[in-house]
UniProtKB/TrEMBL annotation:
This is Uncharacterized protein. Residues 1-29 are annotated as: Disordered. It comes from the Eukaryota. It comes from Spirodela intermedia (Intermediate duckweed). The chain crosses the membrane at residues 68-88, 94-111. Keywords: Membrane, Transmembrane, Transmembrane helix. Residues 10-21 have a biased composition (Basic residues). The lineage of its organism: Eukaryota, Viridiplantae, Streptophyta, Embryophyta, Tracheophyta.
Amino acid sequence: MEKKTEAEKQKKKKAGKKPPKPPRVPRAASLDACDQKLIQQISELAMLKRARTERMKALMKTKNSKPASSSSSFWALVITVLFCLVIVWQGIPATSSFFFFFFVFYSFIFYNS
């Protein structure tokens, strides 16, 4: 019985013992004032650059979400119609100008209704 009690005591001692902590990482040499100032300036520049890219992303997002203005699409439609009328007018001979004026009058009424 004495052996069992001694073995049990040894198990209890081993079970209650905490594992040792790992060794600490050695510290780097401390920087002098010039190096610290340089690191601070570099970090400030990085923050400014990050803020600028975030602003550009937000601007692009708002630009892409906006629909095209109706006034610009209206003027594009007017220019396209005038271009088509000029092409048609160039293609119609002078003898059949009646059909051209009929076409212009009909298109004017059709687009304004």
